[in-house]
Design a protein that fits this description.
By secondary structure, the protein is mainly alpha-helical. The chain is 42% helix and 7% strand. Strand 2 and strand 3 form a beta hairpin. The N and C termini lie far apart (53 Å).
Length: 107
Amino acid sequence: MGRRLPHPVDFLRPLLSCQSADEPVTYNWARFCDPHVDALVSQAQAAQLTDPAAARRLWAQADRIVTGQAPYVPIDNGGTAGFVSSRAGNYQASPVYGPLLDQTWVR
């Protein structure tokens, strides 16, 4: 059995639905509720098996609405930058450990 990829409903229902906005324990911290988005999600989910192309259009439409309303705004992209002198060579960085100083040489 193959690994299941993340699906739009796995994100939209728990994080951005009217139902999740009203639950006492919720992941919808923005308390986002748009009944039109909920209807699109339900339609897309229903169309998924019978008309995948229509489902993709509905998922995209729901995504555009949510993105346009911006209930969540990313404040960090998790990226890093390394600056080195022109005298340094073989600079390498690990996403876990940062700069690998033992790999870097200096003229």
